[in-house]
Amino acid sequence: MDEGLRSELSKQGVFTTTLQELSNWSRRNSMWPLNFGLACCAIEMIAASMARFDIARFGAEVFRPSPRQADLMIVAGTVTKKMAPLVVRLYNQMPEPKYVIAMGACAISGGPFKQGYNVLKGIDRYLPVDIHIPGCPPRPEALLHGLIELQKKIAAQPLTGEERPRHLRTDAPGEFPVPAYGPYDLQPPHNPDLWRPPVVVRGQPA
To answer: Is the peptide bond before 137 cis (omega within 30 degrees of 0)?
Structure first.
């Protein structure tokens, strides 16, 4: 529709939009985070929901205690290998469309515990992460910024075509395999459909 005509109609109290804009507007302004935390980043996440920072201004104040009522998983803190299968299981129980924010260095890469035998080196090895928030721990303002960036990402998603979101693709999985506790490590150590170790090309010896 011509922008001039749209402007004139709005002056008369008639607002026009597209189905895509309406769908994205409703999704980005009504995200319900899952109410759980893993480590010290969860304290910053809790602070973001308090009156000083007020995450409710962005339509994400309804922290749900059940994954079946949530559509945003904020992985806040260190993901140990003992906890990783449970995090994946919670994600699988969330209805589509659903999103993941990796909050803090530990959730992104293992952080200061990266060399530990019991810490997962990034939740993106098992789950598709939409937004990464660096920091140790990131402040509540950083979480709000990550939430705004996720809203921008949702607002730009088309309903058709190759760039449509995962929940509109019949070939995209809605659930991901839950790793099992092996004798020495998680089995499998990562989801090969989501993450592959980088290829290191070493120079030829002189």
So the answer is: yes
